[in-house]
TrEMBL record:
Annotated membrane topology: Multi-pass membrane protein
UniProt keyword annotation of Phosphoprotein present: no
Purpose of the protein: Mechanosensitive channel that participates in the regulation of osmotic pressure changes within the cell, opening in response to stretch forces in the membrane lipid bilayer, without the need for other proteins. Contributes to normal resistance to hypoosmotic shock. Forms an ion channel of 1.0 nanosiemens conductance with a slight preference for anions.
Record's keyword annotation contains GTP-binding: no
Key words of the record: Cell inner membrane, Cell membrane, Ion channel, Ion transport, Membrane, Transmembrane, Transmembrane helix, Transport
Protein name: Small-conductance mechanosensitive channel
Signal peptide: none
Annotated transmembrane regions: 30-54, 74-96
Family statement: Belongs to the MscS (TC 1.A.23) family.
Pfam families with a match to the protein in the record: MS_channel_2nd, MS_channel_3rd
Length: 298
């Protein structure tokens, strides 16, 4: 083609020389920047050491501030997060000398928005965990019930809460689930009220039956004597007069089960000894036509 000059290919030796010169410049820049890299690593190491010291001794530091374990843990965790953020910012400014605090904070703001949009659920659980720890509705060791999860709290972390079911399984529950749903703290107090229904036959003396049951329940080992035992006739059942028995016992599920077992046993024994009948359901069968009886010949 006319008017176009022929472009000669660059010799291989010249291309290799150009690549070598570029690598040399990169290596010189790296060596020149090495002190900044080492200094930034030293800053990160110092930050890590400070965080370790805060985690080890921070619990004792906040012991005078509050007696609640969950609140002390929250203070320590928030303090470690702040230390890590400041340490990373300072390490970035050391690594890049032209980076100012204003630019660093602006970059952190943009990065936090992007991370917040990408990990929305994670941050929701994080802030829910902070609110749970701050409001301390329950502590480690409490027995709670939330939806279909009932068990003992083993640890309350910023993002998750681990609960050990009464049957032994370990459940890791997101804090947002506990924050949004109603949560019953079964061991918020050392005592808990329990109710069962007993029944006596219609032909028995109800007042005498109430006295017998009340005396038997008060003598139980698992029934607290600092609260009143309440025994009241409740209604007319299918085959018995229903009597509601209410008492106070320990708050843990194991104590409640043990107490119910003891109370049912002593009520049965006391009514038997008093000669009071505990009825069982009766069934009456009716037929439209008379039944024909047939005598079998032996």
């Amino acid at each position: 083609m006319e008017g176009l000059e022929e472009i000669a290919p660059e010799p291989v030796s010249e291309a290799a020389q150009t690549v070598a010169e570029s690598l040399g410049e990169v290596w010189k820049d790296f060596l020149a920047h090495t002190p900044f890299v080492i200094a930034s690593f030293m800053v990160l190491l110092a930050t890590w050491l400070i965080v370790v010291l805060v985690r080890r001794f921070g619990w004792h530091l906040f012991q005078r501030t509050t007696s609640r374990k969950s609140l002390r843990d929250l203070f320590v965790r928030l303090l470690t997060i702040v230390i890590w953020v400041l340490g990373l910012l300072f390490a970035a400014m050391v690594l890049f000398p032209g980076l100012t605090p204003a630019k660093a904070l602006g970059a952190v703001g943009l990065l936090s928005v992007a991370i917040g949009l990408a990990f929305k659920d994670m941050f929701e659980n994080f802030f829910a965990g902070i609110l749970i720890l701050w409001r301390f509705p329950f502590e480690e060791g409490d027995v709670i019930a939330c939806e279909n999860i009932t068990g003992r709290v083993e640890s309350v972390e910023v993002r998750n809460t681990t609960i050990r079911r009464m049957t032994g399984e370990l459940v890791v529950v997101p804090n947002l689930f506990l924050f949004k749903n109603p949560c019953e703290v079964l061991t918020n107090r050392v005592k808990r009220r329990v109710s069962i229904t007993a029944g006596v036959a219609y032909g028995e003396d109800v007042e005498e039956s109430v006295k017998v049951i009340e005396t038997a329940v008060k003598a139980c080992r698992t029934v607290r004597d600092d609260e009143q035992v309440q025994v009241y006739p409740e209604g007319f059942g299918d085959s018995s007069i229903d009597i509601e028995v209410t008492w106070w016992t320990g708050s843990t599920p194991g104590q409640v089960r043990e107490s119910i077992g003891e109370v049912v046993t002593v009520i049965k024994k006391a009514l038997d000894e008093a000669g009071i009948e505990i009825p069982f359901p009766y069934r009456t069968l009716t037929f439209k036509e008379p039944l024909k009886l047939r005598e079998e010949k032996g």
